[in-house]
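lol ok so funny story. i was supposed to be doing the assay writeup but got distracted and ended up predicting the structure for this chain instead. priorities right. anyway since i did it might as well share w the group, maybe its usefull for someone
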Amino acid sequence: MTEFTPVLSLIGGTIIGLATVALMAFHGRIAGINGIVSGLLARPATSDWAWRAAFIAGMVASPLAILLATGKMPQITVPAEPVFLVIGGFLVGIGASLGSGCTSGHGVCGMSRLSVRSIVATLTFMATGLITVYVMRHVIGG
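and the output, tada:
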């Protein structure tokens, strides 16, 4: 069972919200991780490379900030075999490409802009997640 952490969740959500607003305000861009990474890898010599690299570096460095603030690294447990993580990552990548964005782009940025496409995409993500958890826990067992 996951521990209930409303204060940490509020702080994290606030930081995500501020980052998305700042990216839109200063660069006119959506904070969709799929688009940021694909733009970083596809066009490494363009003028927007620096902010993309800084955004990703911030995501990678954030556990280090937690370590500095608390004295311990965040504990993340993923109860799955590595092969399933690779398959899942591959499927998420395909879905993000087919859906023209990922959960961060559609769920955080698109829904806040009342984009119908993003609302439908987010509802699809959520429904798929609910069905997957149900099947894994109650049909397959685990």
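The chain has a mean pLDDT of 87. The first helix runs from residue 6 to 27.
back to the writeup now i swear
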